[in-house]
Design brief:
- The protein is of the alpha+beta class and about 500 residues long.
- Helices cover about 30% and strands about 20% of the residues.
- The strands form five sheets. An eight-stranded mixed beta sheet has the order 3-19-15-18-17-16-6-7. A four-stranded parallel beta sheet has the order 2-1-12-21, covered by helices on one side. It has a four-stranded mixed beta sheet with strand order 11-10-9-13, with no helix packed on it.
- Strand 9 and strand 10 form a beta hairpin.
Length: about 500
């Protein structure tokens, strides 16, 4: 099918109430064995992101009664695709009422499929959705010394070579657990390539090299079971792929249910909270369950938004103190002409934004949209600017490309720049990008956070993955699978 036909059929997805074709249902009969556990056990899952949906799908397939409570009005968590029906909010900003010109899915959250042999890409293959391999289709290019440097030129630069060797050998790091930036400085790498290393490492892991512990990164990389290929969905939205895969449980998600407390002191777990009403205001609710899976972001747990009785044990408190979740911004910018190179993949090394993605590569003939991802302290700074972040980003590109960004940025008839900003720090029930470990932390903190309480309270979500998949859809899915299996084994 042509791209626009594919988008029309799948682009609205479950979230818009479209009936999906049979091949997109969660499980085939071959994958749906008869229940092998007692079916009088009821499970409540808190959070309807990738981890919660996958855990629910597994447990429901086993015959268990599953209820998913989602605090926000939407399903998918940090997997979100821009829809034509999206309205502006405190976290989703539009600088113009005119739409982006891109004829491919524009992602506000998780954007890449990491690993062609990963659990997420296996699901994509099962759904028969096409992908584009970024590495084989597009070389990465760089901002270096305030100039645009093509990949082939960078590869001949001695400072770049030193930075690349540092990055390629992260998994073999055996020093003390300092910050990534401290390790870079100790390695004697020239500051002129520090921004590129921040793009590759700090920004990738949801923060900056100054705050990120290097030892947990190294330990995770040694345990990684997948390859490092980077793929994009060619025609279909990431959010729709997720909701389509788990359509059997998506329809039962109870949205606007904000959990405030979990009492597991008795024979049953009591979950209490508030229902956010459409007209404003709240009303209380309380339900009981045999088992509970908590999949909320680490930011919510750190803030104490959910209280536990008995209180969380000391090892979980320590784990939460060693974990952090910084601000994250996704900016989508349209241009009248592609001045950064039709064959470019990522542009790395910016001071304002560490990562610019040539979003249309392999997916569009026009190829004139940049997807910009900023994490960490810079994202916090930009969050305070609101839509005024756009001139900052254009200025960085103008310096590198000789004024071509401001000259070519698309504007509407009222001379307003056409762009979209997703500020994840302002999503009330997410409040940031992805989890990372500070220098004083270790992957044992993630394992401790994942440990069940009294065989009643189980934990999932990307922050609980200690196998190198934290911060990814893969990590969320694997954690949901783990938590579901823990429940099954506990019955």
């Amino acid at each position: 099918m042509k791209r626009r036909i594919a988008l029309k059929q799948l682009g609205l997805g479950v979230s818009a109430g479209v009936v999906l074709p049979g091949w997109l249902t969660a499980c085939s009969k071959e994958e749906d064995p008869n229940p092998s556990v007692p079916n009088d056990v009821d499970v409540v899952i808190i959070g309807a992101g990738a981890a919660g949906l996958y855990a629910a799908d597994i447990l429901q397939t086993k015959g268990l009664k599953v209820t998913i409570l989602e605090a926000s009005p939407r399903v998918g968590g940090r997997v979100r695709t821009l829809k034509s029906s999206d309205k502006p909010s405190s976290s989703l900003l539009f600088t113009s009422p005119s739409p982006l010109s891109s004829d491919f899915p524009t992602e506000l959250g998780a954007e890449q499929i990491i690993g062609s042999d990963s659990i997420w890409n296996k699901i994509i293959d099962q759904l028969k959705l096409s992908t584009v391999d970024l590495e084989s289709n597009a070389p990465d290019n760089y901002f270096l010394d305030n100039t645009f440097v093509e990949n082939t030129v960078a590869q001949a630069d001695s400072d770049f070579i030193a930075a690349k060797n540092f990055f390629d050998n992260l998994s073999s790091y055996s020093g003390s657990n300092v910050s990534v930036q401290q390790a870079i400085q100790a390695a004697g790498i020239n500051p002129r390539v520090h921004a590129i290393l921040n793009s590759w490492i700090g920004n990738k892991y949801g923060t900056s090299n100054e705050l990120l512990g290097i030892k947990p990164i190294a330990d995770g990389l040694t345990q990684l079971a997948r390859n490092e290929k980077k793929l994009l969905l060619t025609d279909n939205p990431m959010q729709d792929a997720l909701l389509s895969k788990f359509s059997a449980v998506v329809s039962g998600v109870q949205v606007n249910k904000v959990v405030k407390s979990i009492d597991y002191s008795g024979s049953k777990v009591i979950i209490s909270g508030n229902i956010s009403l459409p007209a404003g205001g709240v009303e209380p609710f309380s339900i009981e369950a045999s088992k509970v899976i908590v999949t909320v972001p680490v930011s919510i747990l750190k803030a104490g938004d959910i209280t536990f009785n008995p209180a969380l044990p000391s090892n979980k408190i320590t784990a939460l103190s060693n974990l952090e979740m910084d601000s994250s911004l996704r900016v989508l910018l349209d241009f009248k002409a592609n001045f950064w190179g039709l064959s470019s993949g990522f542009l790395y090394g910016g001071a304002a934004s560490p990562e610019y993605l040539n979003a249309g590569i392999g997916r569009s003939e026009s190829n004139k949209t940049l997807s910009i991802t900023v994490n960490g302290a810079k994202a916090t700074e930009f969050s305070a600017l609101g839509t005024d972040v756009i001139p900052v980003l254009l200025n960085e590109m103008d310096v590198v490309f000789g004024g071509k960004a401001s000259l070519n940025v698309r504007k509407d008839l009222n001379d307003k720049i056409i762009s979209v900003i997703q500020d994840w720090s302002k999503e009330k029930y997410i409040r940031g990008g992805v989890s990372y470990l500070k220098p004083e932390g270790s992957n044992q903190d993630r394992a401790n956070l994942a440990t069940a309480l009294n065989s009643k309270i189980f934990f999932a979500g990307e922050a609980t993955d200690s196998q190198g998949e934290s911060g990814t859809i893969n990590g969320a899915l694997l954690s949901g699978e783990r938590a579901a299996n823990e429940i099954i084994n506990s019955i």
